[in-house]
TrEMBL record:
Record protein name field: tRNA modification GTPase MnmE
MF terms in GO: GTP binding; GTPase activity; metal ion binding
Binding positions for GTP per the UniProt entry: 226-231, 245-251, 270-273, 331-334
Lineage start: Bacteria, Pseudomonadati, Pseudomonadota, Betaproteobacteria, Nitrosomonadales
Pfam families assigned to the protein according to its UniProt record, in alphabetical order: MMR_HSR1 (PF01926), MnmE_helical (PF12631), TrmE_N (PF10396)
GO cellular component, one term: cytosol
Protein species of origin: Gallionella capsiferriformans (strain ES-2) (Gallionella ferruginea capsiferriformans (strain ES-2))
């Protein structure tokens, strides 16, 4: 621990009222702070019920004090926790009392940043702390916990270790003169390379799932007026989010709603129906539809099952960026007499719920979610970029087997990309970027 680090404090619990609220202090000189507020330093790692006093000796609150001497604390520094009643004003008084004793207000993420700098956790774990707090579904929370527990880091560290082995092997090759080349075991090298390739591919696949759990996917509902887009949004959300009426052109603004399917967070965007219209406001709504669709990961093209896919529908589909995947969904299937039409697509009824489970599964499939029973760890875009970079260098290495120097260099770059995930050699600006997005007190 750098002894120069100053002492920081913050309210660690959520803003507003709660049963209990916590002020957390980390750094040095906690003895005199505890002496001033509590009259004594609490016994290490024991819950101590005590008065919290202000500078005049008046009791601010009666609560529990916890003292964690370094390095056995969350931050790795001395930590003092004052657990009081969870009112905004009383916690404010307690925090002000600490600040009056020469303690500085913590910046966003500063406790966790210190935990990282003091080697209590690595960078991927530190990020997962924020992801755990921000998780909107239980599935996302569980996978964030797996990352915090170190599952993701273990996969990365395993790869880094194997790359080190491979590099040692190749460096040894470099030392042998041409004629002694048979001394070098190229089959060992090739097996190791193959193993790393497989493991990296697996880690990347899992990280993609984890990133989906963190970010969710954006899904745009589009189609002609009155086909039932807003009805489908309401059905998927399980509540009446959007106005539904038999008047075509009901939805004007884009309506956004967060939902989840089997723990995968989804951002649904219900849009204005698309048609030729002389109504100025409706036309503005349609312009928004087009803007919105451009940002979607998946387009749900809604059609009327009784009418099938018309010329007008085809024109709508043709109007969207080709790179965005789309699903054709025939709604109002409850009104169909007899057999469903032969058109390819999914038949549903937003009204009766028919086919909705099938649609849910199709949506998950389209956005690339594979049911991984409990194995996913949460990941960020930053991690995916690093893993992809590692992959590229590894592929380049494979092309350079006959040039040991170049091969070794590509392996080094592979390893460097992977190490950036756990933050072995991370730049200050990256750390600033990561921790500034935390909440104060974390
Ligand atoms: N009251 C309270 N609850 C909390 C936290 C906290 O800071 N305070 N946490 C904050 O986010 C989380 C728990 N994180 C913690 C992580 C490490 C240690 C700790 O004392 N570590 C020591 C001892 C480990 C051991 O006994 O096995 C160490 O690492 O050496 C404490 C809390 C969630 N709940
Ligand atoms: N029978 C039947 N009627 C439906 C179904 N889905 C929607 N409707 C009806 O179709 C009409 C239009 O529904 P909306 O959900 O408002 O359609 P929309 O696509 O959002 O329409 P705009 O916002 O105008 O573009 C309403 O009267 C709904 O009750 C369905 O599955 N079956
Ligand atoms: Mg609508």
């Amino acid at each position: 621990m750098p002894p120069s680090a100053d002492t920081i404090a913050a309210i660690a619990t959520a803003q507003g009222r709660g049963g209990v609220g916590v002020v957390r202090i980390s750094g040095s000189g906690l003895g005199s702070i505890a002496e001033a507020i509590l009259g004594r330093l609490p016994v290490a790692r024991h819950a101590t019920y005590t008065d919290f006093k202000d500078e005049t000796g008046e009791v601010i609150d009666q609560g529990i004090a916890l003292y964690f001497p370094a390095p056995h604390s969350y931050t790795g520094e001395d930590v003092l926790e004052l657990q009081g009643h969870g009112g905004a004003a009383v916690l404010h008084l307690l925090l002000q009392r600490c600040l009056g004793l020469g303690v500085r207000l913590a910046e966003a993420g500063e406790f966790t940043r210190r935990a990282f700098l003091n080697d209590k956790i690595d960078l991927a774990q530190a990020e997962s702390v924020a992801d755990l707090i921000e998780a909107t579904t239980t599935e996302a929370a569980r996978s964030a916990m797996r990352s915090l527990h170190g599952d993701f880091s273990a996969a990365i560290n395993g790869l880094v270790e194997e790359l080190t082995l491979l590099r040692m092997l190749v460096e040894a090759m470099l030392d042998f003169p041409e004629e002694d080349i048979e001394v070098v075991d190229t089959s060992h090298r090739d097996r190791l390379l193959e193993k790393i390739k497989t493991k990296l591919a697996q880690t990347l696949a899992t990280a993609k799932q984890g990133s989906l759990l963190r970010e969710g996917a954006h899904i745009a509902l589009v189609g002609r007026p009155n086909v039932g887009k807003s009805s489908l949004l309401n059905r998927l959300a399980g509540e009446e989010v959007a106005l539904v009426s038999d008047v075509p052109g009901t939805t004007r603004d884009v309506i956004r709603q967060a939902i989840q399917i089997r723990g995968v967070p989804l951002h649904i965007m219900d849009t204005a129906g698309l048609r030729e219209s002389g109504d100025e406001v409706e036309n503005m709504g349609m312009a928004r539809t087009h803007q919105t669709v451009g940002r979607a990961d998946l387009i749900l093209m809604l059609l009327d099952a009784a009418q099938g896919c018309s010329e007008g529908d085809l024109a709508i589909i043709a109007g969207f960026p080709v790179e965005i995947p789309r699903l054709q969904v025939y709604n109002k299937a409850d009104l169909l007499q007899g057999a469903l039409s032969n058109d390819a697509g999914i038949y549903i009824s937003a009204k009766s719920g028919l086919g909705i489970d099938t649609l849910r599964e199709q949506i998950l499939k389209q956005i690339g979610w594979h049911n991984q029973e409990g194995g996913t760890f949460i990941a960020r875009e930053r991690h995916l970029i690093a893993l992809n970079q590692a992959n590229i260098h590894l592929q380049q290495a494979e092309q350079l087997l006959d040039h040991p120097e170049l091969f070794a260099e590509e392996l080094r770059l592979t390893q460097q990309a992977l190490s950036s995930i756990t933050g072995k050699f991370s730049a200050d600006d990256l750390l600033g970027e990561i921790f500034s997005r935390f909440c104060i007190g974390k």
